[in-house]
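User: Design a sequence. Structure:
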């Protein structure tokens, strides 16, 4: 895969991982094992397989230094180097992404959450986005528990995206917005204009809604497996999927 020159990759791997306590008392959630590798290898590989080699890891919390010990310069993933940024406190996904502004510069960026495992090749969508003038692109996946996520509301006619609702009590669809996003460099002006939500965080859903309002938001529905490994159950499921894949290929 050719290295895409105008797109940088950002892996958001901060947070305290409190839902995985006591596992996260000794290290960062994103360094916990999924079969034979640290969890964060998977989202980094999603970027690398799509042709992105210029990657920033945004982390924070008491175990941030563990990333350098484990990842080093990304040699295990075919990289010559990795870049690192430190997020103070817990301010939400958009706040963490703001740490990448100087790294992204005038380029576009593909942002992936460090606890998201995406079992689908997204290189075609990334390559297409590299040629587009701007805007944003989100990825969705049909789930059984959409109330846990940002959820897409479709227009009654034409099936275009009408709105995105964050953790709605009554979801308008079963299509969750997964932790993989593509943005032009106006993303940082948008983040700077955000106000914290009721949760006290800068919400990525509010950013996506800004692009939607502009008419520059596009989307792609993935068919492969996707897991948000934020809970003991989803971490166990991720291990089971990767183990099964290993059995089938060895």
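Assistant: Done.
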């Amino acid at each position: 895969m050719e290295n895409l020159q105008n797109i940088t990759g950002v892996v958001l791997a901060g947070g305290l991982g409190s839902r995985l306590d006591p596992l996260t008392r000794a290290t960062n959630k994103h360094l916990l094992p999924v079969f034979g590798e640290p969890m964060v290898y998977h989202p980094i590989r999603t970027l690398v397989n799509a042709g992105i080699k210029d990657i920033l890891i945004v982390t924070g919390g008491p175990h941030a230094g563990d990333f350098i010990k484990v990842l080093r310069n990304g040699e295990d993933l075919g990289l010559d180097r990795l870049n690192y940024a430190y997020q103070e406190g817990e301010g939400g996904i958009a706040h963490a992404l703001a740490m990448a502004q100087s790294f992204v510069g005038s380029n576009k960026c593909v942002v992936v959450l460090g606890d998201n495992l995406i079992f689908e090749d997204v290189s075609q969508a990334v390559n297409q986005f590299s040629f587009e003038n701007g805007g944003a692109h989100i990825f969705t996946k049909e789930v059984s528990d959409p109330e846990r996520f940002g959820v897409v509301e479709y227009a009654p006619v034409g099936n275009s995206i009408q709105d995105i609702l964050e953790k709605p009590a009554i979801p308008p669809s079963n299509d969750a917005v997964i932790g993989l996003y593509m943005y032009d460099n106006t993303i940082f002006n948008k983040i700077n204009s955000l106000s914290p939500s009721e949760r006290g965080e800068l919400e990525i859903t509010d950013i996506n809604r800004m692009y939607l309002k502009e008419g520059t938001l596009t989307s792609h529905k993935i068919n492969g497996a996707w897991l948000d490994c934020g809970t003991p159950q989803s971490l166990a499921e991720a291990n089971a999927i990767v183990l099964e894949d290993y059995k089938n290929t060895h």
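The CA atoms of residues 135 and 164 lie 16 Å apart. The radius of gyration is 17 Å.
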